[in-house]
Amino acid sequence: MLLRLLLLFIVVPFVELALLLKIADMTSWQHTLLLVIVTGVVGTLLARSQGFRTYQEIQRALAEGRMPTDSLIDAVLIFVAGGLLLTPGILTDLFGLSLLIPWMRRFFRRALIRWLKSHFKIHTSFPNGPAPGGRTEVIDSYVVEDHTNRDAEH
């Protein structure tokens, strides 16, 4: 865990700085600065539109009575993309932009779900032991009073 944090907070910014300096050396510092600004603006616009679309998908799923699991994961990935785009750098911008492209986000979502399933186990239990046949069934009912028989008795 410590090694991963070192990679995240030391190595990645160092590589980002080296890339920015190399691009500035190959072009100019003005072009490099413009590249960072343009990727930030484009990323912000993409994050906003993708975030709004995902919000609408969540609302639609909830209105239909479905759990919006894929849309919720997409919302988290879009949020992460926004954070990456706020960080100046080439690698973080490219990764953030890739999270905003819907078909790429599906790839990352599937990989994230695979990772979550391999690291977390979900166990369900029932108060009176396991459900018969491995299935549960919820029956919704209500009581209706028959007032005609009550009036005849009195």
Task: Outline the structure in words.
By secondary structure, the protein is mainly α. The chain has one domain. It contains six helices and no strands. The protein starts with a helix and ends with a helix.
Strand fraction equals under 5%
Our count of helices gives 6
Strand/helix succession:
HHHHHH
Q: What do the pLDDT scores average to?
A: 84
Q: What radius of gyration results from the CA coordinates?
A: 26 Å
The number of E-state strands comes to: 0
Secondary-structure content class? mainly alpha
Largest sheet: none
Global geometry: elongated
The termini sit apart by: 78 Å
Question: How many domains in all?
Answer: 1
Helix content: over 70%
pLDDT below 50 for ≥5 consecutive residues: which ranges?
none
State the main characteristics.
mainly alpha, 154 residues, 6 helices
Brief account:
The chain is mostly helical and 154 residues long. It contains six helices and no strands.
